[in-house]
Design a protein that fits this description.
- The structure holds 2 protein chains of 2 kinds.
- By secondary structure, chain A is mostly beta strands.
- Chain A has strands at 4-7, 10-13, 19-25, 31-38, 42-51, 54-57, 64-66, 76-78, 87-94, 106-107, 111-115.
- In chain A, the strands form 2 sheets. In chain A, strands 2, 4, 5, 6, 9, 10 and 11 form a 7-stranded mixed sheet that branches.
- In chain A, a hairpin with a 3-residue loop joins strand 4 (31-38) and strand 5.
- Chain B is mainly β.
- Chain B is built from no helices and 12 strands.
- Chain B has strands spanning 3-5, 10-14, 19-21, 24-26, 33-38, 44-50, 56-58, 64-68, 73-78, 87-94, 103-105, 109-114.
- In chain B, strand 8 (64-68) and strand 9 form a beta hairpin.
- Chain B is globular, with a radius of gyration of 14 Å.
- The N and C termini of chain B lie far apart (41 Å).
- In chain B, 38% of the residues are buried.
Chain lengths: 116, 115
């Protein structure tokens, strides 16, 4: 059954700590995305990757970092520089825009991050 | 830059009545528009998209959307609402800057369907 798996479902961060959110997909999608969701603000793009070993900053990349060493995986690290990390984080994937533009994004079920 | 606006934070409708969730867009060039639904503590699910062609787009779960170029709108509709349709609905437009199938989302509309 193809899909996107995010883990953990809930995560707690202490002050000064970096935490990493996992995102794995078995849809054979080239592109992957990370969003932050806050109440009343919709989804905001943090980082995206169109291909392995390449990624670009989105609208709110400060305080976050990513890697894309494998096609299936796109982990997000929330660093201690992110002063307001409490939010619901969503990972998504889609087919490449090259040759298959306008394909919908498929989403995982999110990780809820809170501050201890 | 492209953007979408969802003017209503919440829409209430009685079960069996038609529902409309509004979305307006602003883009330079052709708009590529999407609707997604989100249930509590879940990810977003794709409902439908408009790329080109017929202005009335049919999607999943009996939903449809009407594209209106002159009014720059893409309203989501369903002829007969169900209690199970209660969820958060997002309109999105494809972001053509920087390549990829990036999307810019609206702020969401909470739909509540009551018996």
């Amino acid at each position: 059954d193809g899909g996107i798996t995010q883990s953990p479902k809930y995560l707690f961060r202490k002050e000064g700590q970096n935490v990493t959110l996992s995102c794995e997909q078995n849809l054979n999608h080239d592109a992957m995305y990370w969003y932050r969701q806050d109440p009343g603000q919709g989804l905001r793009l943090i980082y995206y990757s169109q291909i392995v070993n390449d990624f670009q900053k989105g609208d709110i990349a400060e305080g976050y970092s990513v890697s894309r060493e494998k096609k299936e995986s796109f982990p997000l690290t929330v660093t201690s520089a992110q002063k307001n990390p409490t939010a619901f984080y969503l990972c998504a994937s889609s087919m490449s825009s090259v040759g298959t533009p306008n394909q919908p994004q498929h989403f995982g079920d999110g990780t809820r991050l809170s501050i201890l | 830059a492209q953007s979408v606006a969802q003017p209503e934070d919440q829409v209430n409708v009685a079960e069996g009545n038609p529902l409309t969730v509004k979305c307006t867009y602003s883009v330079s060039g052709n708009p590529y528009l999407f609707w997604y639904v989100q249930y509590p503590n879940r990810g977003l699910q794709f409902l439908l998209k408009y790329i080109t062609g017929d202005n009335l787009v049919k999607g999943s779960y009996g939903f449809e959307a009407e594209f209106n170029k002159s009014q720059t709108s893409f309203h989501l509709k369903k002829p007969s609402a169900l209690v199970s349709d209660s969820a958060l609905y997002f309109c999105a437009v494809r972001d053509l800057t920087g390549g990829g199938n990036k999307l810019t989302f609206g702020t969401g509309t909470q739909l509540k369907v009551e018996l």
